[in-house]
From TrEMBL, chain A:
TM helices/strands, residue ranges: none
Domain (Pyruvate carboxyltransferase): residue spans on this chain: 43-310
Pathway: Metabolic intermediate metabolism; (S)-3-hydroxy-3-methylglutaryl-CoA degradation; acetoacetate from (S)-3-hydroxy-3-methylglutaryl-CoA: step 1/1
Keywords from the UniProt entry: Lyase, Metal-binding
Species annotation: Neogobius melanostomus
InterPro entries with a match to the protein in the record: Aldolase_TIM, HMGL, PYR_CT
UniProt cross-references to Gene3D superfamilies, sorted A to Z: Aldolase class I
Family per similarity comment: Belongs to the HMG-CoA lyase family.
Protein name as it appears in the record: hydroxymethylglutaryl-CoA lyase
UniProt EC number: 4.1.3.4
Catalytic activity as recorded in UniProt: (3S)-3-hydroxy-3-methylglutaryl-CoA = acetoacetate + acetyl-CoA
UniProtKB/TrEMBL annotation, chain B:
Sorted UniProt keywords: Lyase, Metal-binding
Name this polypeptide is given: hydroxymethylglutaryl-CoA lyase
GO BP: any one term: L-leucine catabolic process
Family: Belongs to the HMG-CoA lyase family.
Enzyme Commission code(s) on record: 4.1.3.4
Length: 336, 320
């Protein structure tokens, strides 16, 4: 059997592959067996470790360490790495070096480095530092919006509209985040319809993708399913991503549920960086390693090398003097 | 970011859904903490602590609590007090207390101590069988046949375990057909339920699905249980997959007791608390009280001077 270049294999439909490589038929049939029925063939991982992960780590990480982490991640096959956040250093000291980080990284071809830009000022600073993709961060909870970014959901949409319009003028794509999609630390239960509404507004403003975040990790396959049923009425599943927190250990189960409902973009953080600011000592982001292990075990293509991500995780955990949150990395680090 | 928040009441955000399509309405939890969990803990637990743990679990709504193992104390010192534990617990009505009985001697000791349900422990891996119980799979089946026949004569139900169903620490990949064969043999010998164990936790929804597709050809899904280890963080995803394939019995351990003997420092059993949180959040009935299981978990972790492996218990123990 000959070799199929990974760039060809990655995310091509099986019909197209058969036309180009007729000898692939039996290989593909075998692959279809391993890809469990009802799941996408490919999943895009959005690596949020350097931003969302580090933002929630107590220890301030030196700029050169952040740069090295991103450079290592750039060599793993990841196609999207959220690099930093152009938020005021008064609010998020960890991200004070945003311009230095963005300018300092070695940008790999075929990898995008979105940055958070909460407002027009942040956007302009990001562009000045060379940003070619940005993200805005809304909420499905009114109270969380007030406490987190000091304005109502409606007010935040006005700010985002400014950012998005400016970005689109410069042909800079914008990703939209919705937080608290399965629960809010202040309000508790969040109506799926509210999540759908906020997602729709961001999508209509021009965000190409909406990442739905279970900010406090309380979601289950039940609430994930209900929420997505509402959201897909307003935003096509191909434009959705899930950003699951593992605070209650539910992340992989929730991701699995989302995949079954047509979502094929998953946010995760190397080494499960970033605790939960709302439950001290508890975990936050799901580990990229654990997500990759699951997806690869299901025959789902990601284009990402698990061993290389584990390596990047070991690097940052050593730098942070902390243990990895990834169970895969933990298990791999000991001899069977 | 303001970190001062009011703790959301779990019920507000968790159990809000009716049964999600394609899942069973009810799931039976088989609590294996006192046996499988403690067996893999380094610290020897005093008999009275084991008894108190089981008594606390008996008040949670759990209907099956694996109490102990009638294995030689030479091999498993943690279970040396098996008869005292079984005699010492306060048996709640509607709760069953199966015990492991690897051979006829163990079975007879178990019956003498009042056992009313037993379990035998086979393997889908030849090498694991040799290293774990010092005999081949075929030889183990002969032993189990003796136990099962004696048990059935006394109307004592027998549960069968199959280990290494998704991978073996020695052999690596295990053929689904082999798992199906061993499960079938135990079922045909008379086991009422077969618990399929991912002993080293390497399984994923992909391999879980493939394995179960083979097994259900030989054993009806209603007679199957999954015993998932969380060593690679895959347990809940694997359980979800099994439920979608018609399995409705799940083994788990309070506080995720029991590390992985094959990956030191790594976790083993999936936590009962985390499983319950997921199932209740899906509107699936279990009859078990999550807060009471968390309480039992706190008790045993204090006694063991260790942190819980349950993420739910961890999150609940801190103020939001």
């Amino acid at each position: 059997m000959g070799n199929v270049p990974s760039t060809v294999k990655h995310c091509l439909s099986s019909e197209q592959l058969l036309l180009d490589y007729p000898w692939l038929k039996s290989w593909l049939l075998e692959k279809k067996d391993t890809t469990t029925h009802g799941y996408p063939e490919c999943v895009k991982i959005v690596e949020v470790g350097p931003r969302d992960g580090l933002q929630n780590e107590k220890e301030i990480v030196p700029t050169e360490v952040k740069i090295q982490l991103i450079n290592m991640l750039s060599g793993t096959g990841l196609s999207v790495i959220e690099a930093t956040s152009f938020v005021s250093s008064k609010w998020v000291p960890q991200m004070a070096d945003h311009s230095d980080v963005l300018r300092g990284i070695q940008r790999a071809p075929h990898v995008r480095y979105p940055v958070l830009t909460p407002n027009l000022q942040g956007f302009q600073d990001a562009v000045a530092a060379g940003a070619s993709e940005v993200a805005v961060f809304g909420s499905a909870s009114e109270t969380f919006s007030q406490k987190n970014i000091n304005c109502s959901i409606d007010e935040s949409m006005v700010r985002f509209e400014d950012v998005i319009n400016s970005a689109l003028e410069k042909h800079i794509p914008v990703r939209g985040y919705v937080s608290c999609v399965l629960g809010c630390p202040h309000e508790g239960y969040i109506e799926p319809a509210k999540v759908a509404e906020v997602a729709r507004r961001l999508y209509e403003l021009g965000c190409y993708e909406i990442s739905l975040g279970d900010t406090i990790g309380v979601g289950t396959p039940g609430s994930t399913s209900k929420m997505l049923q509402s959201v897909v009425k307003e935003v096509p599943p191909q434009a959705l991503a899930v950003h699951c927190h593992d605070t209650y250990g539910q992340a992989l189960a929730n991701i699995l549920t989302a995949l079954q409902m047509g979502v094929s973009v998953v946010d995760s953080a190397v080494a499960g960086l970033g605790g939960c600011p709302y439950a001290q000592g508890s975990s936050g982001n799901v580990s990229t390693e654990d997500v990759l292990y699951m997806l690869h075990g299901m025959g789902i293509e990601t284009g990402v090398s698990l061993p290389k991500v584990i390596e990047a995780g070991e690097f940052i955990c050593t730098a942070l003097h902390r243990r990895t949150n990834s169970k895969v990395a933990q298990a791999q680090s000991v001899k069977f």
